[in-house]
Design goal:
Layout (H helix, E strand, L loop, with lengths): L1 H20 L11 E6 L4 H14 L2 E6 L2 H11 L7 E5 L1 H9 L3 E2 L4 H6 L11 E14 L23 E2 L6 H14 L1 H13 L9 H10 L4 E5 H9 L3 H8 L1 E4 L10 E9 L5 H11 L2 H9 L4 E2 L8 H4 L11 H6 L1 H11 L3
Parallel strand pairs: 1-2, 1-3, 6-7
Antiparallel strand pairs: 3-9, 4-9, 5-7, 5-8, 5-9, 5-10
This protein binds fe (iii) ion.
Length: 347
């Protein structure tokens, strides 16, 4: 896995050098700049920016911080904000940015063609650039606790004292609940949540990696986590991580129903962007194959553009059908999801 990602970096470096010798490439300072506000920070992101600059001559200025902080910053900078693009993870955070009024529609036939409809905001306010699925894991030694093929099974009384999942304030859970509300309505989603709470092995705590470790150790028999955490452990060279990885098995929920809940890493064009053309150029570049490989694989996610391969650790998690619900729906139902969690007593 490590080898293949290094290989792809060098291939990209080569292809951008080739691009530089073409006449449409770098024309120095006149190509301008791009101000990127990003809550993502992976090693491969640096290569992404460098390759883009090498191919276009557009200089990338990067500001990294948490998503909520960046949204606040763009709001407070107002008309004078230098921000062109906001990159963040989870549809819930893109929704917060949309609600804050800091996005404008992206108009790009290239993005419309490359990205499936569920990876694009209906009014073009953001695009999804990579995907993660929220899946069920169980303790391998204890075996598959049946029934366990869908999220609904997490609420089955057969699983009392077995389920570990993080708190209801976590955005991944809020977006999962938003999907449940979309799919089954608030009343049924609340009933489901109450059933899951009744099955908690412990009070919600820790992050997704913490849930995987707790399932591996047997503290919990069942957990709910994002796929990239599983792939990260599987690809780790640390023997302790390898041990944890092989002590859990994965279930892609909903394969007989709507499919497994997926969420996105995505980007929106800031409404006051001083360099909107460069911003759209960058988004189009991010949907090219070499950039998708860096962007998605840097965090063991699924590329948003169909037909591009995930890392081997991700592929080895297995194939599945994804819930095609537009990530915008996850945004719309954020507030309802939080209320459902509250009523169900999910800490
Ligand atoms: Fe995460």
């Amino acid at each position: 896995m490590r080898f293949s990602s290094l290989l792809s970096v060098s291939l990209i470096a080569f292809s951008t050098l080739t691009a530089c010798s073409d006449d449409d490439a770098s024309d120095g300072a006149s190509a301008g700049e791009l101000n990127l506000y990003s809550s993502r920070h992976y090693d491969t992101d640096i290569a992404l920016y460098e390759n883009f600059t090498a191919a276009t001559g557009i200089k990338v200025n990067l500001i990294e911080a948490g998503a909520d902080e960046l949204i606040e910053r763009i709001k407070s900078e107002g008309e004078a904000s230098p921000a062109d693009l906001l990159i963040t993870v989870d549809a819930g955070r893109l929704w917060r940015a949309e609600q804050a009024g800091i996005f404008q529609p992206i108009d790009s036939p290239i993005l419309n063609e490359r990205l499936p409809e569920n990876m694009r905001h209906p009014d073009g306010l953001w695009v999804g650039l990579s995907k993660r699925a929220r899946v069920i894991v169980y303790n391998a030694e204890a075996g598959l606790p049946e029934p366990l093929s869908d999220y609904s099974d997490l609420a089955n009384p057969a699983h009392q004292d077995k389920v570990c999942i993080r708190s209801s304030s976590n955005i991944y859970n809020i977006s999962l609940m938003a999907a449940m509300v979309s799919r089954m309505g608030e009343a049924a989603a609340e009933e489901w949540a109450a059933g899951v709470v009744a099955n908690f092995a412990r009070t919600p705590q820790s992050n997704d990696t913490g849930q995987i470790r707790a399932v591996a150790s047997g503290e919990c028999q069942i957990g709910v986590v994002n796929t990239y955490y599983l792939a990260r452990l599987a690809a780790s060279e640390d023997p302790a991580d390898q041990e944890v990885s092989s002590a859990v098995e994965i279930v892609f929920p909903g394969q007989k129903g709507n499919g497994t809940h997926v969420n996105i890493s995505g980007a929106g064009l800031v409404s006051t962007s001083p360099n909107p053309e460069n911003a759209i150029k960058f988004l189009e570049y991010l949907t090219s194959e070499p950039a998708q490989l860096l962007f998605a694989n840097g965090n063991n996610e699924y590329p948003a553009v169909p037909g591009i391969a995930a890392t081997s650790a991700v592929v080895e998690l297995g194939e599945f059908n994804e819930d095609m619900l537009n990530a915008y729906e996850l945004g719309i139902n954020q507030a309802a999801a939080i209320m459902v969690f509250d009523r169900a007593g999910w800490k």
